[in-house]
Amino acid sequence: MGLFSWRGLVLAVVVVAATVERTEEQLVENFYGSSCPNLEQIVTQSVQTKFAQTFVTIPATLRLFFHDCFVEGCDASVLIASPNGDAEKDAKDNLSLAGDGFDTVVKAKQAVENVCPGVVSCADILALATRDVVNLAGGPQYSVELGRRDGLISQASRVAGNLPEPFFDLNQLTTMFAAHNLTLIDMIALSGAHTLGFSHCDRFANRLYSFSPSSPVDPSLDPGYAQQLMDACPQNVDPSVAINMDPITPQTFDNVYYQNLVAGKGLFTADQILFTESESQPTVRSFATNGAEFNAAFITAMTKLGRVGVKTGNDGEIRRDCTAFNS
Known about the structure:
- Helix content is 46%, strand content 2%.
- With 327 residues, it is mainly alpha-helical.
- It folds into 2 domains: 153 residues, Orthogonal Bundle (Peroxidase, domain 1), CATH 1.10.520.10; 123 residues, Peroxidase, domain 2, CATH 1.10.420.
């Protein structure tokens, strides 16, 4: 154990567990029951209006929630705009976040402010909007715990190393998720969000043209799928070209993502590795054949994700404008 004693390790685990328990107690589903009783209907209506304008609303909002929670916790810090270009959203790993996700939350916040000014945090609105877009795409309905407050820190320098990369192996993925009290099954379930949305050629080009000296194409890729990707993403293609994460049902929240992994059609290394590694393969196979099991695991994982690093009580603030600190 090196410098750490078993006694110290046990104490640390107890402290972490106690912190998690306190956080769970502070977030409740009906937090705004008296202060803003129509909150969920207001947010849902706003999200539906935005969705009617563009489907991108769905994957953009879902991805925004994940990126927010993994850096500084679920505190809407990713929404802050900085004239100096040094806020969280300006970090390299966040530059690809679609503007429709930000717009979804900003418009929902405006709608809420018209009815309940200064009451509901942007962090809670983002959590509710994320639930709504999952449902709009055909995914499961679930209740959202509320009571988060908005963070007071948003720095681009704090992002690097805190978000999973497309080239991560299973150990890197499980280690990063475990740091947020998310298990292997939680990680696999949350990866299922890749059933929606798109990525860009430069994020996976190495799997097509320079995977290894002996095999330019990643051998874990289905040959037919690899050829489709090469046709869509020839070398030196404009990096802005978008490719659906799920080539089969890209606009439906379902378990086809896992069926794709079984078939060798995971877009990222970090996707396909979930099937090629023996530790995670059984869960992938199970989710691929049982959509209800995946949905249940996704709800559990999203609830746990929504508790990561939350500010409650007197911590943080309730922003008037989601893109700016109050002072």
